[in-house]
Amino acid sequence: MGTRGSACGEATVGKFWRVLKWVVGIGVVVLIVCGGAGLFLFPTITKLQKEAAERSRGAAVVIEKASVGEIVRVVSAPGTLAAKSIANISARVSAKIEEIPFGDGARVNQGDMLIRLDAKELEASLAASRARYLADEAALKSAQANLAADRARVLGSRAQYENAVLEFERQQQLFDSGDVSKSSLDSAKTEMDRLKASYDGAQAGVDSLLASVEAARAR
Q1: Cα–Cα distance between 180 and 178 in angstroms, integer?
Q2: Are the beta carbons of 162 and 198 closer than 8 angstroms?
Q3: How far is CA 205 from CA 96, 115, 137, 146, 167, in A?
Q4: Model-level pTM greater than 0.70?
Q5: In 3-state terms, what secondary structure has residue 94?
Q6: Domain residue spans in the chain?
Q7: Ranges 6-15, 86-95, 171-180, most confident
Q8: Are 121 and 95 in contact (CB under 8 A)?
Q9: Is the pLDDT of residue 22 over 70?
Q10: What are 116-144's pLDDT values in tens digits?
Q11: Which CATH architecture group holds 134-218?
């Protein structure tokens, strides 16, 4: 019995020491972990403490002696910048803009050229208009010359027609008195009608040329 009791006591003591070693080992590990975490978190904790201390102190106050001075008031507000007067400009002709001498905000005086237009197309159009004018002027002079000639022919045709009328009247009187034959009267009538048609045609030509002259003058 004595031997058995001694053995049991030794077993209990050995088990106790094993448990104690295990607990001590765990404690050491915990201390190492906590110590490492503490070293890692120490700067952050220190910074937070400083910030809390600064906030607790409040804003800095500067004390100065009272004196008389000017108060400057500054007001910030949105707004739109506009000119006192606005002038709309436009060109009399349509053309490509070649140059704008002045920029935004530049000062200009009366008579300054604000926009330069490309004059190439306008100059070509002007040259074509001048050529048409010269052609129309030449046509007008030609029509006037033809009109003068046709008027002279009209006067000649009218004189011939009037003479034919007088001859027909004379032949009519002679026919009535029995001095000429019916064929002579008919010949006089035919000549009078022919000259009348010639006179009417010449007069129509004069009227047509006169209309052409008026149209040429209008251009």
Answers
A1: 6
A2: no
A3: 49, 54, 21, 10, 26
A4: no
A5: coil
A6: 134-218
A7: 171-180
A8: yes
A9: no
A10: 888 888 888 888 888 988 887 888 788 77
A11: Up-down Bundle (1.20)
